[in-house]
Every structure is written in C-alpha cells, then in structure tokens.
Protein: (2Fe-2S)-binding protein
Organism: Thalassotalea euphylliae
Amino acid sequence: MIKFEINGKSTALDVDPNAPLLWVVREVIGLTGSKFGCGMGLCGACTMHLNGEPVRTCVLPVSAANGQRVTTIEGIADGESLHPVQQAWVDENVPQCGYCQSGQIMSALALLEKNTNPSDKDIQAAMAGNICRCGTYPRIEKAIKRVISNGQPLPQSSPKESAVNTSAAVTLASNATNATQATNVTTASSGVEIFEPAKREVPSKADTGVKATREAV
C-alpha cells in the first residue's frame, strides 16, 4: 500500500510500487492535468512537485512518493481563483496548443517559490528542462517576469484539495511498469530523495551509428 498526500488530501493506493507516479495520478486518481510527453524525463510535460521540488513523474516510481507530499497543477489554484502564476499565463496569452503548459507552470512556480526575483539566467536555467514544441518560450519568460513585477506574495503550492480516489485497489499493468526508466537518486535540500533519469545514449543520426550522450533533465 502506497500512502501519500496529494494536493492536500491523504490517499492510500494498492498499486505496483514501480509504476510511474504520472500514470498512478492520471489513471488511478484521475487527475489528468499533468501530461505524458516523452517517457524519459526529458521534456517536462509531466512535472509535479514532490515536497515542493519539481520532479519528472513519467520516470519517478510511485514508491518515491510514499509518505511524501505531491502537488499537481490541479492543486495550486484557490477554488475558482487562479494561482498568480496561472493568472500571469492567461494575461500573457502563453499557451498555443497548451499540452506542455501544466509542466511549464509547475517548473516556474517551483522557481518563484524559492527565488522571488530571479535573473534571466535563473529563469532560463529553471525552465531549461521544459520543452515547448510551439516555441512559446518568450511568452513564458514574460509571464514569469509579470509575476515578479506584480510583487504579489505567492501561496505555497500545496494543500488544495482535489477529488481523489482514496481507496483504489488497483495494480497497474506490467507494461506501465516496464515503461519506467532507470533512475539515479539525489537528495534535495529538504532531505527527500528525488529520482532522476540516468544518462542515456541516444542516436545523434539514425543512419550514421554515431551516438551522443544526453543528460536527462
């Protein structure tokens, strides 16, 4: 049994501990705001917060969340009132297709909760792991700077309740488990173990046989 807090509400789930947190949140709990993009922790579409730290949940086993606090995009608004970061996204008309934007917002929020006045380099570094195929990067940066210029204190990205299935007794299919990528473990400043994708070799050109090592973010 895996027990953790999600968006301020406790949940206990009978699921495969190796199943990716993303799929447990989407398929078992039913919160679908966080998206599947690459399955390798490279694009950032699946970003949630684990005890306030942004993590790539497509490669994070749900067991890593046991006893911890998980926050998804659904958990940051205050009822009908958008979180200031979400409101800035609206004001700057950031989304185009919108698929990656929940992950973009969660990464931006993690940055702004730790650094209320980040430099351009700070913003670029914090957002480097989030890919937008529509190329909305200039608008994303403008939205982050709008939050900064507003000077509005940010509510912490946690305990907002969402509808959660607290008694699901579900074992995810083995193919979901097999999709989980190998991970390294690092320790965040909070002392929580954060699972991150290991380095992977990916072909630089399909027909040359030359390979380049890419660091997952």
About this structure: The chain has two domains: 1-76+158-217, 82-156. The helical segments are 21-29, 84-91, 101-114, 120-127, 137-150, 174-178. Residues 159-217 have pLDDT under 50 and may be disordered. The first strand starts at residue 2 and ends at 6.
